[in-house]
């Protein structure tokens, strides 16, 4: 059985087809043989009658030819007589000579011997005729004619009897034929049903692995690589396909594992790289911090201020003190939130320092509502804005540049406005700054490193509002105003 | 675990399918084989030739009327005696179209080259010639019931006609004695005593010597019994048996004549039946005493009814057997006894029941 199932699919299908056909072929052969033998039987039924008729005809022919010869003595009739006598002899010899219980056989025996006797008589008649012995041939003729009649009577009776018995037999054979038909139809039907069932089972057994394969493939398609791999039962094409599929699934699984491992490795590498970078940044920062230690700077400046005071140089003292205050703000201010007052003070100090550096060129106006100075805001916000106003607005105006700082209340907001009367700024650039798309051009002056985008985004985060910062410019050389809105809670 | 389970299940299912497949294939093959065998046996049974027993010898029996009970009974006796010896006896004429005379059947038998002929012969020349022809062709011939003394027949199997005649004579004497008694009672009419008319029905066309022997036997018996000539008068009444129906007509003619015989002696079965029927038809029961021949059913029942006075029972089986014995003796020893005489029994109303019982028990 397994040998069969291990055959290639093509051979398997072909052999099933051939087997089914072979079985049907055998059944058909049986049918044909059966029908044939029955047909022969049917044909044989009246064989005896035919033979008897032949015998009777032959007998009559002998009698006729003899009579003809006796009456006309033609050579034709003599020749015919010999011929017919020969054939009668042959035919009569074919009849069995046995004595049995069966009437027919005894009748045949009697017919046989009587025919032979008759032939003797006839030949004697013919001889007598040849010898022109009229008296003798007349006697012989009568004797043979009498015998002829007896034989005919026998034949007629036998013919009749046999016909009756043969008819019965014919009926029997016909009935047998019908039985045979029924048996054949039954056998054919059963064999056909059997073949169909076998074919269905075999085909199902062949197709089943394919179905299992399809189910497994579907599961794999759904991402379940841990599906039960279909079993390879036979080494036909389907078995080969299933084997290939199984191999594929196994190798895909292995591939996935390998992939996962390599991804893990990569991730580790990246992490390492990132850590390295962070460390580098940290180192750089520490290095920078070490470079510009504000405490060191502040203490140095403070020492400079005290020296100036001891020397009586009041202006120097004041300047250095201001610079020291400015830097101290940086040093102490590590919190994210400070009061507006502190920011404004920082701006004051910054302007004072700039005015010393640029010999009092910058006019600084302050309109501050003192009640609002205690509210909180992000640190390091105002100074960069003022620095921008100085650098981009009024740098090239000499003593005509004016910076106006206002702190006022508007509705429920505290507004801090830094205004200059300088170059102004294009609306396009304002939009860029506010959307954070502003990119610093090379060689451009940079403030302490805190860019406008940093300021804007911190203010937005602090207030939770998108319009926390507003930049207004009325056109070229018409100045610029940056307004910060802080909620008054 | 689940995987193992499902694989176990699929294996089970697979086995189930395998078994189903094998069973289906086996079933198909079995159907084929059974169908072929059934057909084969059926046909074999159907074609089985009727088993015929082959016999060594073939004898024929020729009678004038193969249909009669008498001949059938003899034939049966012969057949049964012959069969165990491997000899088939055929009642010739049974299997031929048309009616044939004994002579014609003799010709058929001779031409058929049978091994032996048993023939109901008569004394005419043609029969003698035919018997001699058969002997010439080395076919032994036994004459049965009727003899052909002039021929070279091997043997004769008969019934002892003289004995039959004596038996008839005794019966007639019984009738005469009865009449004497009646006459004695009725003594006034002694002077007008009537002679008893005895009619013996004889066949016209047969040169049967047996008939004459019967009559002489009958006469002798009456003489011996001291019946006086005035007491009886025997006459031969010819019965025309040349054609099938003339017998009955001849017998009826007797009853239409002025003097109806007191005793009618019938020498064959047909005559007996016809006479008995005529007696009934002419309302002569009790007046006419019939001495019948052979014990066919009709005759025996007539005895019971007192229509027939007595009948002769012939041991027909024995006759048949004697025929076979004679032929076999010829084949074995080259010769055999010239005469065989079968036993006869008289049946009258006194012994009819016992004889019938015996026969029934025989059968």
Explain this structure.
The complex is a heterodimer of chains A (489) and B (363). Chain A is α+β, with helices and mostly antiparallel strands. In chain A, 71% of the residues lie in helices and 9% in strands. In chain A, the strands form 2 sheets. A 5-stranded mixed β-sheet of chain A has the order 3-5-6-8-7. In chain A, strands 2-4 form a two-stranded antiparallel ribbon. In chain A, α8 packs antiparallel against α9 and α10 runs parallel beside α11. The radius of gyration of chain B is 33 Å and the shape is elongated. In chain B, β7, α6 and β8 form a beta-alpha-beta unit. Chain B has 363 residues and is α/β, with parallel strands linked by helices. Chain B starts with a helix and ends with a helix. The mean pLDDT of chain B is 84. In chain B, the strands form 2 sheets. A 6-stranded parallel β-sheet of chain B has the order 3-2-4-5-6-12, sandwiched between helices. A 6-stranded mixed β-sheet of chain B has the order 8-7-9-10-11-13, with helices on both faces. The interface between A and B is large, with 56 and 45 residues.
% residues in beta strands of chain A: 5-15%
Cα-atom radius of gyration of chain B: 33 Å
Summarize the main sheet of chain A.
5 strands, mixed
Number of strands of chain A: 8
Strand content of chain B: 15-25%
SSE class of chain A: alpha+beta
Are there runs of chain A of 5+ residues with pLDDT below 50, and where?
A: none
Write the layout of secondary structure elements.
The complex is a heterodimer of chains A (489) and B (363).
Chain A: H1 2-5, H2 9-45, H3 47-72, H4 75-94, E1 99-100, H5 103-130, H6 134-221, H7 237-291, H8 294-311, H9 314-332, E2 337-339, H10 340-357, E3 363-368, E4 376-378, H11 382-394, E5 402-410, E6 413-420, H12 427-435, H13 452-463, E7 469-473, E8 480-487
Chain B: H1 2-47, E1 54-55, E2 57-62, H2 69-82, E3 87-91, H3 102-111, E4 116-119, H4 125-136, E5 141-144, E6 155-158, H5 161-185, E7 196-203, H6 209-224, E8 232-239, H7 246-256, E9 263-265, H8 269-281, E10 289-293, H9 297-304, E11 308-314, H10 316-333, E12 339-341, E13 344-348, H11 352-362
Parallel strand pairs in B: 2-3, 2-4, 4-5, 5-6, 6-12, 7-8, 7-9, 9-10, 10-11
Antiparallel strand pairs in B: 11-13
């Amino acid at each position: 059985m397994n040998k069969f199932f291990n055959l290639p699919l093509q051979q398997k299908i072909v052999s099933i087809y051939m087997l089914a056909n072979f079985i049907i072929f055998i059944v058909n052969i049986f049918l044909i043989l059966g029908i044939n033998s029955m047909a022969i039987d049917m044909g044989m039924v009246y064989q005896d009658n035919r033979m008897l008729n032949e015998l009777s005809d032959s007998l009559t022919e002998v009698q006729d030819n003899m009579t003809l010869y006796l009456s006309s003595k033609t050579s034709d009739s003599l020749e015919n007589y010999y011929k017919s006598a020969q054939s009668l002899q042959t035919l009569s010899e074919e009849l069995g000579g046995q004595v049995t219980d069966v009437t027919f056989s005894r009748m045949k025996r009697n017919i046989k011997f009587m025919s032979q006797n008759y032939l003797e008589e006839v030949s004697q008649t013919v001889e007598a005729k040849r010898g022109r012995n009229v008296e003798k041939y007349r006697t012989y003729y009568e004797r043979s004619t009498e015998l002829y009649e007896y034989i005919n009577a026998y034949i007629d009776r036998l013919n009749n009897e046999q016909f009756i018995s043969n008819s019965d037999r014919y009926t029997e054979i016909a009935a047998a034929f019908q039985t045979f038909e029924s048996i054949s139809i039954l056998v054919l039907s059963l064999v056909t049903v059997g073949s169909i069932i076998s074919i269905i089972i075999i085909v199902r057994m062949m197709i089943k692995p394919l179905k299992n394969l399809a189910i497994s493939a579907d599961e794999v398609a759904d991402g379940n690589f841990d599906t039960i791999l279909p079993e390879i039962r036979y080494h036909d094409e389907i078995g080969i396909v299933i084997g290939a599929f199984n191999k594929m699934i196994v190798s895909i699984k292995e591939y996935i594992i390998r992939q996962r491992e390599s991804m893990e490795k990569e991730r580790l590498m990246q992490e390492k790289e990132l850590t390295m970078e962070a460390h580098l940044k940290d180192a750089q920062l520490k290095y920078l911090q070490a470079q510009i230690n504000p405490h060191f700077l502040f203490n140095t400046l403070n020492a400079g201020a005290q020296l100036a005071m001891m020397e009586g140089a009041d202006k120097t003292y004041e300047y250095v003190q201001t610079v020291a205050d400015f830097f101290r703000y940086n040093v102490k201010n590590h919190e994210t939130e400070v009061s507006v007052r502190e920011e404004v003070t920082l701006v004051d100090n910054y302007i004072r320092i700039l005015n010393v550096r640029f010999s009092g060129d910058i006019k600084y106006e302050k309109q501050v509502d003192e009640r609002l100075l205690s509210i909180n805001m992000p640190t390091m916000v105002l100074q960069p804005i003022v620095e921008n106003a100085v650098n981009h607005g009024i740098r090239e105006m000499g003593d005509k540049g004016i910076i106006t700082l206002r702190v006022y209340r508007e509705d429920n907001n505290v507004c801090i406005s830094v205004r200059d009367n300088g170059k102004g700024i294009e609306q396009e650039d304002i939009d860029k700054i506010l959307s954070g798309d502003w990119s610093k051009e090379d060689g451009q002056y940079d403030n302490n490193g805190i860019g406008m985008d940093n300021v804007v985004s911190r203010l937005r985060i602090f207030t939770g509002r998108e319009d926390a910062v507003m930049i207004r410019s009325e056109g070229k050389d018409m100045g610029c105003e940056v307004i910060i809105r802080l909620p008054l809670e | 675990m689940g995987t193992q389970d499902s694989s176990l299940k699929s294996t089970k299912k697979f086995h189930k399918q395998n078994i189903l497949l094998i069973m289906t294939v086996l079933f198909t093959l079995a159907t084929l084989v059974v169908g072929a065998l059934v057909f084969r046996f059926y046909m074999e049974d159907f074609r089985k030739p009727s088993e015929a027993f082959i016999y060594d010898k073939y004898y024929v029996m020729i009678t004038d009327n193969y249909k009669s009970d008498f001949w059938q009974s003899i034939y049966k006796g012969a057949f049964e005696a012959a069969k165990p010896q491997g000899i088939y006896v055929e009642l010739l004429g049974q299997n031929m179209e048309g009616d044939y005379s004994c002579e014609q059947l003799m010709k058929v038998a001779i031409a058929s080259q049978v091994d032996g002929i048993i023939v109901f012969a008569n004394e005419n020349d043609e029969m003698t010639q035919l018997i001699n022809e058969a002997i010439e062709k080395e076919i032994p011939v036994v004459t049965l019931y009727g003899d052909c003394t002039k021929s070279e027949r091997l043997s004769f199997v008969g019934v002892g006609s003289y004995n039959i005649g004596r038996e008839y004579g005794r019966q007639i004497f019984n009738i005469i004695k009865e009449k004497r008694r009646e006459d004695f009672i009725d003594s006034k009419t002694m002077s007008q005593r009537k002679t008893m008319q005895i009619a013996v029905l004889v066949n016209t066309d047969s040169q049967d010597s047996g008939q004459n022997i019967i009559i002489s036997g009958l006469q002798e018996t009456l003489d011996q019994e001291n019946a006086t000539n005035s007491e009886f008068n025997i006459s031969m009444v010819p019965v025309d048996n040349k054609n099938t129906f003339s017998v009955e007509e001849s017998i009826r003619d007797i009853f239409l004549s002025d003097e109806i015989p007191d005793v009618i002696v019938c020498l064959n079965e047909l005559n007996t039946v016809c006479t008995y029927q005529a007696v009934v038809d002419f309302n002569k029961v009790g007046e006419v005493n019939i001495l019948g021949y052979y014990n066919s059913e009709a005759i025996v029942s007539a005895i019971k009814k007192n229509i027939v006075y007595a009948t002769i029972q012939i041991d027909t089986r024995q006759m048949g057997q004697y025929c076979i014995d004679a032929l076999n003796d010829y084949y074995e020893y080259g010769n055999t006894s010239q005469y065989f005489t079968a036993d006869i029994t008289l049946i009258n109303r006194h012994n009819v029941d016992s004889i019938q019982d015996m026969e029934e028990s025989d059968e």
